[in-house]
Amino acid sequence: MKNDNSYKFSREFEKADKKFQVGELLIHGNEVVIAAGPCSVESEGQMLETAKGVINAGASILRGGAFKPRTSPYSFQGLGVEGLEILEKVGKKFNVPIVTEIMNTELIDLYSEKVDIIQVGARNAQNFDMLKRLGMQKRPVLLKNGLGTTVDEWLMSSEYILSNGNDNVILCYRGARGIENATRFSMDIGAVVVAKKISRLPIAVDPSHAAGKKEFVKDFALAAIAAGADMLEIEVHNNPEKALSDKEQQLSIEEFGELMDDARVVAKAIGRKIR
Ligand code: PEP
Ligand code: MN
Q1: Are the C-beta atoms of residues 135 and 160 closer than 8 Å to each other?
Q2: C-alpha of residue 130 to centroid of ligand 1, in Å
Q3: Could you give the count of Cα atoms lying within 13 Å of 82 in the half-sphere of its Cβ?
Q4: Which numbered atom of ligand 1 lies nearest the CA of 175?
Q5: Model pTM?
Q6: Among 206, 234, 248, 250, which residue has the most ligand 1 atoms within 8 Å of its CB, making it the best to mutate?
Q7: Is 60 exceeded by the pLDDT of residue 83?
Q8: Which of 15, 49, 172, 175 is the most exposed place for a label (fewest CB within 10 A)?
Q9: Is CATH 1.20.1600.10 the right assignment for the domain spanning 20-269?
């Protein structure tokens, strides 16, 4: 085991915030970057409409799941490679980077070719073989915390990527299992504060999966910005009632616009801006 001070994620290793570019976008600068889009890519029409809406409202990264980790094997599993190709096409059309989750280590080459930011979901947050292999390729990785991992365990997962040669990692807090059941997961804003203190990596927050209900998403998002989040990842659907996954938590385009208006006010209050 290494001395704590030498972990590559830590501020002892390097004091300064780790910054990097994704296309023209600076991650971990003074501007808070917003990624938005549906839980799942469902069709080209859905992606075109949602992308147009979220980008008009100020999102600068497009999200959408192609391979979906669903609790039940009978639930919609995502469009797979077809979904990835739709997301890629729509991202190019609007000239924005795309972020999407990888579920299978065998698809790393395909993702490295097509995806601007490769997302590791909560359920693969300790898939160490996948993390090592993601460290050996060049695309930035957005690493969620596990459903029941501590901040230390989450940071150590990032070390698997960093120590294998990829220094471009975004930590993404998405809530964790706690005692609260009014929300889908417990949103521990303290975890965000602690991770930012310990780590030089940019911190994103996903208020959608933490809240699980659309009525809480905006306030969780605002709290995350106030706590120092460098990026948000938010689920938005052009027709949430008809969504094939996570329909309870996906915002409409209009609701996302309201969130963005308030996000600008909170960011300004702490001397930051929304990109
Ligand atoms: C997602 O972002 O689509 C997702 C499934 O999130 P998580 O891994 O945090 O549950
Ligand atoms: Mn989802």
Answers
A1: yes
A2: 16
A3: 6
A4: 9
A5: 0.97
A6: 206
A7: yes
A8: 15
A9: no
